[in-house]
Amino acid sequence: LAKTTQPISMDSYEGQEVNITCSHNNIATNDYITWYQQFPSQGPRFIIQGYKTKVTNEVASLFIPADRKSSTLSLPRVSLSDTAVYYCLVGDGWGNAGNMLTFGGGTRLMVKP
Amino acid sequence: GAVVSQHPSWVICKSGTSVKIECRSLDFQATTMFWYRQFPKQSLMLMATSNEGSKATYEQGVEKDKFLINHASLTLSTLTVTSAHPEDSSFYICSARDDTIKTYEQYFGPGTRLTVT
């Protein structure tokens, strides 16, 4: 299994850019990297997914170096409403025991005013 | 976007009773559905995977006779917690995936808070 390691928690202030890095040293060739956001007492919400280099959507960017052993979720200009837990998942997502179903500890982001 | 609903959103039951939680995909066919459990301040833990029309596959350590899963249609899966005990109190989350399209995205429901007294 491609285990992921993330910081347990991070603090930031409104308007700042936040970068959360996830380590996945054992990532396989077919594995994708997906990030989810979870608010208390809610299901996780898909943020972004990528395979290599850089992916950007309306809410975040995902940077993946050439060796793909890590990835960085970048949240531009965070607001108080971005306070949540962020999970990095790695895997090909296929099959009942796909790694994409294994949630690590996540990073608890606290955005302060 | 794809929407997954769960019902009920919260439930309180007495020890020894059974509780059924529904998970529905509202605008897509969920060929595969997943059930997770999440305890306070902890990450999600996969309990089981179900494919429409077939028996669910349970993760190690999850009692299949206690957590009954039925994926009877392409839009509905149910999780029944039988003979519930206080230690079963948790946040139960389902997710769904359409395997007919080649993406790796699973769509999560809003979760169901179960409290067993």
Overview in brief:
Chain A contains no helices and nine strands. With 113 residues, chain A is mostly beta strands. In chain A, a hairpin with a 5-residue loop joins strand 6 and strand 7.
Describe this structure in words.
The complex is a heterodimer of chains A (113) and B (117). In chain A, 0% of the residues lie in helices and 46% in strands. The mean pLDDT of chain A is 90. Chain A has no helices and 9 strands. In chain A, the strands form 2 sheets. Chain A has a 5-stranded mixed β-sheet with strand order 1-9-8-3-4, with no helix packed on it. A 4-stranded antiparallel β-sheet of chain A has the order 2-7-6-5, with no helix packed on it. Chain B is an all-beta fold and 117 residues long. In chain B, 0% of the residues lie in helices and 50% in strands. Chain B has strands spanning 4-7, 10-13, 19-25, 32-38, 45-51, 57-58, 67-73, 76-81, 90-97, 107-108, 112-116. In chain B, the strands form 2 sheets. In chain B, strands 2, 4, 5, 6, 9, 10 and 11 form a 7-stranded mixed β-sheet that branches. Chain B is globular, with a radius of gyration of 13 Å. Classes of the chains: A mainly beta (113), B mainly beta (117). Chains A and B meet through strand 3 and strand 4 of A and strand 4, strand 5, strand 9 and strand 10 of B.
Name the descriptors.
heterodimer, A: 113 residues, mainly beta, 5-stranded mixed beta sheet, 46% strand, B: 117 residues, 7-stranded mixed beta sheet, 4-stranded antiparallel beta sheet, 0% helix
Got a strand count of chain B?
Answer: 11
Shape of chain B: globular
Number of helices of chain B: 0
Which structural class do you get from the secondary structure elements of chain B?
A: mainly beta
Low-pLDDT parts of chain B are none
- Secondary structure tally: strands of chain A: 9
**How far apart lie the N and C ends of chain B?**
37 Å
